[in-house]
Amino acid sequence: MELTYEPRIVGFLCNWCSYAGADLAGTSRTNYPANIRIIRVPCSGRVDPLFIVKAFQLGADGVLVAGCHPGDCHYSDGNYHTRRRVGLLRPFLDYLGLDKARLRLEWVSASEGKRFSEVVSSFTDTLIKMGPRSS
Amino acid sequence: MARVGVFICHCGTNISGAVDVARVVEAAQKMPMVVIASDNKYTCSEPGQASIRQAIVSNKLNRVVIAACSPRMHEPTFRKAVSAAGLNPYLLEIANIREQCSWVHSHDREKATAKAIELVKMAVAKVIRHEPLYPREVPVTKRALVIGGGITGIQAALDIANAGHEVVLLEQEPSIGGRMAQLDKTFPTLDCSACILTPKMVDVANHPKIRLLTYAEIKEVRGFVGNFKVEITQKARKVDYSKCTGCGTCWQKCPEKTPSEFDLGLGKRPSIYIPFAQAVPTKPVIDTDSCRYIKYRQWLAAGEQGKKPPECRICEKICPTGSIAWDQEPQTITEEFGAIVVATGFQVYDHRHYEEYGGGAYPDVISGMQLERLMNASGPTGGEIVRPSDGTHPKTVAFVCCVGSRDQAKGRTYCSKVCCMYTAKHAIMLKEHDPDVQCYIFYIDVRTGGKDYEEFYLRTLDDAGAIYIKGRPSKIYRDGKKMIVLGEDALMGRPIELAADLVVLATGMEPRTGADKLAQKLNISYNTYHFLVEAHPKLRPVETQTDGIFVAGACVGPRDIPESVAQGSAAAAKVAGLFSSDTLVTDPITSVVNRERCTGCLLCVAICPYKAIDCETTRDTRVVAVVNESLCKGCGLCVGACRPKAIDLRGFTSQQILEEVNSLWS
């Protein structure tokens, strides 16, 4: 493993909670590693498992899907569908030769800027420890 | 062929302080389909917007990327700018290089710049696939719901009604009036609170455009701006208001007495009651927790187990109009509204959490609100300020500020804003009631931000002779008849021990219990304390992230009366603005079905949270899904669920999102 290894993370963030939480991290100047590239989606339920697989196929070291806390979805129950979809996709990562820990599902509310930065920091740390992908 | 213009903002030094903007411009110029890339000190300013408009025209741009602050901040601003240059406003994409880049990677210019370049690249990849979108118009129901009948809600309801629109004012308690009705006098003018509030309560009751729904709660909220459908639970009052005249015979004769919520347990009220003498409506409700006959009926229903409660029914026997309705059950009312104002206010922090001060344990340690009730001429003591323990007049009174405020140990870090001022008011009032009283006030800082507030505070020192001691007491305990306050005089740097007759804890504000649940029903945000979150703390203080839902008063954060009233009026102005046109423009970001691809599995119909998808039969007799665009909110849940990939979401198409991902590795 090179010392300069910088994992690349693709983050799919729902507009109402997690994207706003990421904005709040900025407004409160909470630094976190610059390894994440955020894609804004209206709801975490908009995330097609295909997007996640595509990111891994292209070479992403980690994928973060973040939405509103259960019960707080702006669209009432979109995040429950997200939870199931990610839950169903996760076993297939094994099949693709990927460590399951490379896919993270997190609930980050619009008021949890600090939590968002913690999520990114800890995910980045985990990926650095795991090292570059072997497949 | 897309012709993309990329405009990168410095945001003063907010972005350029961490990101090398020149390098981002240079990189953007080389991106596919990019015709022009330039930077600007302040893109959102008029000169900044003008340069974008000019660039669109002179370079014949048909797609625009702006790399600046969050789209949640200025997307509407920039859509207008793009639109002014003749471009469809939805052919714009914003790269968030401030909140999600420069502000969080300020420690590493190299990485921040690299990230900003990639964010721009993603936005370019997405914008190329944007299609022009056209908003639709929907009718507006010009009827407002105001939740909460305190001073904020009253003000909002009156202002909306005076603008000519129907209002339903909903209150969960039996009377409107809120916390202000409990106060004795108001700072800094020492106006009698009831004297300025109750006329407004009567105005509400008499206003032809206002319908009052007391003792009622929100059950469910559906719909969207201009078209909300709200289910309201009318709690069972056990009194038929169509017959009741409010004569008062019942509540005078009811033999059961229970602690009064309005007097914070210092006095008692009957089981059939109005909370206070000037209540609106002046019609009673039966408290089913304490009523003797209700208990008797429960005893009968439970198979006559245990001791038989008295079968009272006195109110029923003496009611001259036969209004008592024992079998009344909660009812659900469904109403339609175009806008909702949330003004659920605050509750006083429960001083029982302060065991070290004996809050709730010692009768002579009371909260500021309890002192209000003791001072009030219509309070439990008729305005006599006496010790709850033995009814004697206190001569030495100690006040402790910041109880439930600015206290990390209690999980309440915010300043409640009003406690310094109401403590000053209490000191002045106590001296007016009894010139022999000496007040000692333990404080952290005295905060008097407000018109005439500092002058009022100085009166506590000059006229009332109160002694301010800097420092938070460590302990309060009883010694004989005295309450001993242990603390430190932080300015003198010495311990202090004060024997007081009465201790008043200046308790702070917290949101009403259940504010979080209500926010969830309304789909609006709340913070860790459950205060509601406004769309922007400075520039959109009464709006929320959900269109058509407004917030006002102390449910958003600690507020005094003038601020609450101002916010009530502000929310009303927003509602009146919304109701000024007959139709509303809706977001065109909705799902759309490709009928050729649709297999008619209708999984989308089942999954849609808004029942926005229906099915229809095509001419070749195939069943396909069809989206009702005025109901669709654009969540995109159906897109992920669609197996043949027949549904897509405008503005966030699968192809666009995949292009964003792709761009990171191309």
Characterise this structure:
The complex is a heterodimer of chains A (135) and B (666). Chain A has 135 residues and is of the alpha/beta class. Chain A has one domain (26-130). Chain A is built from four helices and four strands; from the N terminus they run E-H-E-H-E-H-E-H. Chain A has helices at 18-27, 49-58, 78-95, 113-130; strands at 9-14, 36-41, 62-67, 103-107. Chain A has a four-stranded parallel β-sheet, with helices on both faces. In chain A, helix 1 (18-27) links the parallel strand 1 (9-14) and strand 2. Chain A is globular, with a radius of gyration of 14 Å. In chain B, 48% of the residues are buried. In chain B, strand 22 (438-443), helix 13 (453-462) and strand 23 form a beta-alpha-beta unit. The longest helix of chain B is centred in the N-terminal third of the chain and has 20 residues, at 109-128. Chain B starts with a strand and ends with a helix. In chain B, helix 12 (419-433) crosses helix 13. Chain B is 28% helix and 24% strand. Chain B has 666 residues and is α/β, with parallel strands linked by helices. Chain B has five domains: 4-128, 3-Layer(aba) Sandwich (Rossmann fold); 140-229 and 330-345 and 512-581, FAD/NAD(P)-binding domain; 236-328, no CATH class; 349-510, FAD/NAD(P)-binding domain, CATH 3.50.50; 590-649, Alpha-Beta Plaits (2-Layer Sandwich), CATH 3.30.70.20. Classes of the chains: A alpha/beta (135), B alpha/beta (666).
